[in-house]
Amino acid sequence: MRKVPLFQYALDHGDSSSQVLSVVEAGPRPVLELVNVTKTYPTQPPMQALTGVNLRVDEGELLAIVGPSGSGKTTLLHLIGTLDRPTTGIVRITGLDVADMSDRQLAALRATRIGFIFQQFFLAEHATVLENVANGLLYAGVNASEREERAVDALSRVGLAMRTRARPTQLSGGERQRVAIARALVGRPAIILADEPTGNLDSSNGVTILALLNELHQEGATIIVITHDRDIAASLPRQVTMLDGRVSSDLSPDSLAPLESGAE
After folding, report:
1. CA–CA separation, 40 vs 52, rounded Å?
2. How far apart are CA 96 and CA 29, in angstroms?
3. 173-185 and 144-157 are packed helices; what angle lies between their axes, rounded to 10 degrees?
4. Of 154, 253, 195, 199, which is closest to residue 64 (Cα–Cα)?
5. Quick count: other Cβ atoms within 10 Å of Cβ 49?
6. pLDDT of residue 80
7. 109/239 Cα distance (integer angstroms)
8. DSSP 3-state assignment of 142?
9. How far apart are CA 248 and CA 243, in angstroms?
């Protein structure tokens, strides 16, 4: 159990020393909770993309959500990232129920509590590396000088402190993905969602990016990797397998057998 992030969370929120101790003794805080979640798209006939999904992710976890095309993992990514809403069930991000939020509030939640890493990088080619990362804070209410300071720090964490003035076109694929990871980190989110983060990279750069995600996990980051690659999933501490819109198994070092969706 990582006690430092929990202490820091409590101290940052003004809790007393006794409250801090109770937080640590109570165990990890969930940053993501899905309870009996379904998603149905109003096509003709209606398409059931998710059925009865239950998932809890605690602070400081590193896990993979893995499954073949059509398994529901992309729909699940959209719900976790608050890019869509469930048809039924509960989705909580850091204890906040997304069903109770307006679109404006959800946008603010995404800007401050969720960091996205995309397979396609989505970097602005006309902007410098530093500007690409700092722009990740544009909608978080952070002033320009702090945006730059935090961007430099995030780039240092991914090993790109010397490339701040470069443009994306001057970078390798692996370096571009590092910039995308720095942009996800810069907002200090509760959850980092990595959608096929090695999908556009060669095997060497892919290994490097996975090693970087593991390093960030060791520093306390909560990271969810969405992938179809079972080898990548197997290299992570926890694997949540999707099949036909359901969680078919949930394996971690502490589990002796798969946990079926909805199991007690």
Report:
1. 12
2. 13
3. 130
4. 195
5. 22
6. 97
7. 26
8. coil
9. 6
How many Å apart are CA 25 and CA 225, to the nearest integer?
28
Residue 56 has a pLDDT of 96
- Return the SS3 of 54: strand
Cis peptide before 45 (omega within 30 of 0): yes
Domains and CATH numbers, the chain: 61-84+102-251 (3.40.50.300)
Could you please report the per-residue DSSP string of 178-212?
HHHHHHHHTT--SEEEEESTTTTS-HHHHHHHHHH
pLDDT of residue 253: 60
Q: What is the predicted pLDDT for the residue at 252?
A: 78
Indicate the angle between helix axes 3-12 and 17-26, nearest 10 degrees. Answer: 140
**Is there a contact between 29 and 6 (Cβ–Cβ < 8 Å)?**
yes
pLDDT of residue 254: 58
**What pLDDT is attached to residue 255?**
53
* pLDDT attached to residue 24: 46
- Which pLDDT belongs to residue 200? 87
Note whether 79 and 99 are within 8 A (CB).
Answer: no
Burial of 248 (0-12, 13-18, 19+ CB in 10 A): middle
Report the alpha-carbon distance of residue 234 to residue 240 in Å, rounded: 10
pLDDT under 50: residue ranges of the chain: 1-13, 15-24, 256-264
d(CA 211, CA 160): 15
Question: Which residues in 114-254 belong to E strands, given as ranges?
Answer: 114-117, 191-195, 223-227, 238-243, 246-251
Output the pLDDT for position 209.
93
Report the alpha-carbon angle 37-110-50, nearest 5: 20
